[in-house]
Backbone:
C-alpha cells in the first residue's frame, strides 16, 4: 500500500465519528457548492459541499468607515510605523521625486521591470539594469536600487502586495538589492483591509506581501530593521 | 517524531534544572513579558477579534472533519500548477524523500527557512548523515545551529539567549560554517543582525536547493503560504532552482478566501504586529520567476493518530503562533527545553504526547506541565481548549484507555507511579477528619523540624525530587493563634 493510501485510510478511520454523508457539519441544510449535488449523495471535485454555510463569517470586511483620503492617510501612517519611508506626490512630480530618492541614496544603478512606465525614470540619469531571467543573483546583488509598481496596498496593516506583473518584475528583484522604491497609485490601488486585498489578488500568481523593510525580533525581542531583504523601503503614494 | 530529544528527562526534572538557572529565567521573563503586552495591544486594535477567532476555529475544524477530501483536492491543484506531491507517513519516510530529492539535484547543501515540521522530523540530522549540509537561515535558528543548541520557542527559537551570549556564539562559531563574524563584533542587535546578513548572503546567492515548511496550504488553488519577517524566507523560496516544502497534513485551509482570517489573526497573535514584514504565496511553479521545480511533501507523523482522538484532535487546529507560550506561567519559568520536544509550552504539552504517544517518561509527564490556569486558551487565535485536552491526556496517562497509535486502535494500560498519590490523599483525608490527631501531628512536626530531610522518603521522593519542600514552621498556626491576641475571640471554642 502506498503512503498516500495509508494516510488517507488513517484519516478516514480517524473520522469514524464524523458523519460521512457529504453534509459539512451538523444537520443537512441547503447546499451551495461549486459542483451540483449528485443523486448518490457525493459531490463533484472541489470543496466539500455547503462549505459556505459551514463557517460563520461574522467578522468585519473592514475596520471603521473612512473616506478614500483617510484610507490613504492610514496606509501612510502604518507604513511609517514599521519604518518604511513614505512620500506623497502627484503624477507630474513623480519622476523628479524618484530622481531625488536615488540621489539621496547614492544610487548609481537601478533595476527596473520591463513593464515599468518609462516616464518614472525620465528625470534621472542612473544606469538602468534590465530584469532578465538569466541574470544571476550575484549580479542583482551589485545593483543599488530597484523601483517597482505594486498590485494592491492595504491601509489597515501598512502592506504593499506585489504580484509579479510587468511593472513589478520577478520576486527576486525586490529582494536582493538593498533599496526598494515602490509606487502606489492612490486611491485606485489602495484598499482598507486584508479581506478586500485577497479579493483583488490572483492566487495563481506568486505574491509577495511587504509590510515595512526586513526586520527581526530574534534578539531579546528587540526589533531591528534590515536583515536579508531590502533594508530601506520607500513607498511613494501618487495621487 | 524526531530522535533529537530522545533521552530527555521527564518534564519535572528538566524544569527543575531550568528554574535554577537565573540567566535563563531572566531572559525568558523579559521576552515573554515584552511580547505579552505587545500582543494584547495588537489584538485590541481589531474590534472583531472574537469573530475572527471563531471563524478560524470553524475553518480549521471543518477542514479536519473532511481532511481526506481536502488532501486529495490539494494534491490535484498542486499537481495542476506544476508541483509534485509526495506523501510521508512518518519522519523517516519524509527524510528519505527529501534526501532523495536533494541528491537528484546533485547538490550537497540546502538553505532552509525556519520550519517546525522539518525540526520535528530531524531533517537536518538526516541530511547530514547523507553528506548534505542544511543551513538554517532564520536569525534565531542560526543562533541555535551555531550554538549547537536546541530551539526553545516556536517563534523565537533562541529566546533563551541574550545578546551577550549571541555575540559570543557568532564570534566563536561563524567561521566554522562560512563567512566569519566581523572583527570587534559588539552585542548590539543591529550589529548582530548585520553579521548574520553577511554570513548568510553568500549562502543564499549560491544555493540551488531550498527547503521550507508552510503556514498554510489552500486546497482550492494549491497555493502555499509562508509568513516571515527577515526576508530569509523569500531568499529560500525564490532564489534556488528547486524548492522542497515539508508540510503537516493539518495545515490545509479549503479556500483562498480563508486566508483573510488567518492573515489577520496569525501576525497579531505571534509577533504582535498588524502584519509581518513578508508573506510569500506561491502556486506550483511560475515560468521565469522562482524555482523551476517544486516538491510538496505531505507529512503525517502522528497527525492521523491525533485526529482519531475526539477530544485531542483540536490540537491540530494550531497555527503555531506561540501566543500560548508567552502567557504561560509554567513556560515562563521552565523554558522551552524542559518540554523535550520541538513544540514547547502549552501547545507542546498537548501536541507532543499525541503525536508521539505517551509511552515515554517525558511524554507521560507533559500533560502535567501546566497549572491549568487557562491563559493559553484565552489567547489562542483558533480557540484550542488546551486545559481540556491536558485533563483528557492526564486521564489517559493515569487510567489508560483506547488510543490510536500509527493508525492502529489499541488500549493503553494505566501508567505506573500514581499509587503513592492515591495513598497520600487517603492519609490526608483521615487526618483532616480528626482535629486531635492533626494537632498532635503538627506539634510533633514543628518540634522535630531540624531533623527533617530535604527530600521525602519512599514514594514521596518523586514529588520532592523536583520541588523545594516548604519549611515546617517553628509553631503550628493554631498554637500561635492561641498564644497571641488573635486567640482571644475564639478562646472558649478552642478549649
Residues:
Amino acid at each position: 500500500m502506498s503512503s498516500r493510501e495509508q494516510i488517507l485510510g488513517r484519516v478516514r478511520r480517524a473520522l469514524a465519528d464524523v458523519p460521512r454523508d457529504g453534509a459539512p457539519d451538523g444537520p443537512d441544510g441547503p447546499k451551495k457548492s461549486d459542483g451540483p449535488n449528485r443523486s448518490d449523495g457525493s459531490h463533484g471535485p472541489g470543496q466539500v459541499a455547503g462549505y459556505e454555510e459551514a463557517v460563520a463569517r461574522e467578522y468585519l470586511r473592514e475596520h471603521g468607515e473612512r473616506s478614500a483620503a483617510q484610507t490613504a492617510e492610514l496606509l501612510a501612517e502604518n507604513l511609517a510605523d514599521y519604518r518604511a519611508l513614505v512620500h506623497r506626490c502627484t503624477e507630474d512630480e513623480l519622476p523628479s521625486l524618484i530622481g531625488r530618492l536615488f540621489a539621496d541614496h547614492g544610487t548609481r544603478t537601478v533595476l527596473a521591470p520591463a513593464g515599468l512606465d518609462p516616464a518614472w525614470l525620465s528625470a534621472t540619469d542612473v544606469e538602468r539594469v534590465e530584469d532578465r531571467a538569466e541574470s544571476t543573483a550575484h549580479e542583482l546583488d551589485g545593483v543599488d536600487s530597484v523601483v517597482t509598481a505594486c498590485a494592491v496596498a492595504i491601509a489597515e496593516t501598512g502592506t504593499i502586495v506585489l504580484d509579479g506583473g510587468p511593472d513589478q518584475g520577478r520576486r527576486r528583484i525586490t529582494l536582493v538589492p538593498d533599496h526598494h522604491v515602490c509606487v502606489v497609485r492612490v486611491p485606485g490601488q489602495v484598499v482598507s483591509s486584508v479581506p478586500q486585498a485577497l479579493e483583488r489578488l490572483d492566487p495563481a500568481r506568486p505574491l509577495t506581501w511587504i509590510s515595512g523593510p526586513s526586520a527581526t525580533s530574534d534578539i531579546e525581542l528587540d526589533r531591528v530593521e534590515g536583515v536579508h531583504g531590502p533594508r530601506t523601503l520607500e513607498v511613494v503614494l501618487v495621487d | 517524531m524526531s530522535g533529537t530529544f530522545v533521552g530527555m528527562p521527564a518534564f519535572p526534572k528538566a524544569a527543575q534544572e531550568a528554574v535554577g538557572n537565573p540567566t535563563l529565567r531572566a531572559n525568558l521573563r523579559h521576552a515573554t513579558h515584552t511580547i505579552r503586552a505587545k500582543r494584547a495591544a495588537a489584538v485590541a486594535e481589531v474590534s472583531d477579534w472574537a469573530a475572527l477567532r471563531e471563524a478560524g476555529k470553524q475553518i480549521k475544524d471543518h477542514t479536519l472533519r473532511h481532511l481526506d477530501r481536502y488532501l486529495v483536492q490539494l494534491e490535484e491543484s498542486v499537481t495542476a500548477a506544476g508541483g509534485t506531491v509526495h506523501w510521508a507517513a512518518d519522519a523517516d519516510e519524509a527524510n528519505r524523500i527529501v534526501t532523495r530529492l536533494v541528491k537528484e539535484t546533485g547538490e550537497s547543501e540546502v538553505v532552509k527557512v525556519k520550519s517546525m515540521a522539518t525540526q520535528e522530523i530531524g531533517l537536518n540530522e538526516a541530511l547530514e548523515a547523507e553528506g548534505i549540509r542544511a543551513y538554517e537561515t532564520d536569525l534565531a535558528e542560526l543562533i541555535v545551529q551555531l550554538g549547537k543548541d536546541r530551539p526553545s520557542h516556536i517563534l523565537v527559537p533562541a529566546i533563551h539567549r541574550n545578546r551577550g551570549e549571541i555575540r559570543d556564539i557568532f564570534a566563536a562559531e561563524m567561521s566554522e560554517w562560512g563567512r566569519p563574524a566581523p572583527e570587534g563584533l559588539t552585542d548590539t542587535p543591529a550589529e548582530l543582525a548585520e553579521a548574520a546578513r553577511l554570513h548568510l548572503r553568500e549562502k543564499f546567492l549560491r544555493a540551488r536547493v531550498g527547503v521550507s515548511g508552510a503556514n498554510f496550504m489552500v486546497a482550492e488553488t494549491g497555493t502555499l503560504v509562508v509568513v516571515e519577517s527577515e526576508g530569509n524566507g523569500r531568499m529560500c523560496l525564490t532564489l534556488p532552482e528547486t524548492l522542497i516544502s515539508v508540510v503537516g497534513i493539518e495545515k490545509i485551509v479549503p479556500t483562498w478566501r480563508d486566508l483573510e482570517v488567518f492573515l489577520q489573526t496569525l501576525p497579531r497573535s505571534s509577533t504582535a504586529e498588524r502584519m509581518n514584514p513578508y508573506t510569500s504565496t506561491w502556486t506550483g511553479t511560475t515560468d521565469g520567476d522562482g524555482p523551476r521545480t517544486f516538491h510538496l511533501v505531505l507529512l503525517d507523523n502522528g497527525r492521523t493518530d491525533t485526529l482519531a482522538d475526539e477530544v485531542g484532535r483540536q490540537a491540530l487546529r494550531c497555527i503555531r503562533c506561540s501566543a500560548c507560550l508567552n502567557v504561560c506561567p509554567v513556560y515562563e519559568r521552565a523554558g522551552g527545553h524542559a518540554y523535550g520536544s520541538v513544540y514547547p509550552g502549552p501547545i507542546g504539552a498537548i501536541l507532543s504526547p499525541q503525536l508521539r504517544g505517551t509511552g515515554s517518561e517525558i511524554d507521560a509527564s507533559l500533560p502535567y506541565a501546566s497549572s491549568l490556569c487557562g491563559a493559553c486558551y484565552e489567547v489562542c487565535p483558533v480557540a484550542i481548549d488546551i486545559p481540556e485536552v491536558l485533563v483528557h491526556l492526564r486521564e489517559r496517562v493515569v487510567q489508560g484507555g483506547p488510543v490510536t497509535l500509527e493508525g492502529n486502535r489499541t488500549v493503553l494500560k494505566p501508567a505506573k507511579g500514581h499509587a503513592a498519590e492515591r495513598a497520600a490523599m487517603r492519609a490526608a483525608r483521615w487526618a483532616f477528619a480528626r482535629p486531635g490527631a492533626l494537632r498532635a501531628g503538627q506539634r510533633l512536626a514543628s518540634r522535630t523540624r531540624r531533623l527533617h530531610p530535604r527530600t521525602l522518603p519512599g514514594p514521596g521522593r518523586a514529588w520532592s525530587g523536583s520541588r523545594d519542600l516548604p519549611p515546617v514552621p517553628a509553631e503550628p498556626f493554631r498554637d500561635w493563634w492561641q498564644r497571641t491576641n488573635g486567640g482571644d475571640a475564639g478562646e472558649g471554642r478552642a478549649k
Remarks:
- DSSP finds 24 helices and twelve strands in chain B.
- The mean pLDDT of chain B is 92.
- Residues 22-44 of chain B form the longest helix (23 residues).
- Residues 196 and 278 of chain B are 18 Å apart (CA to CA).
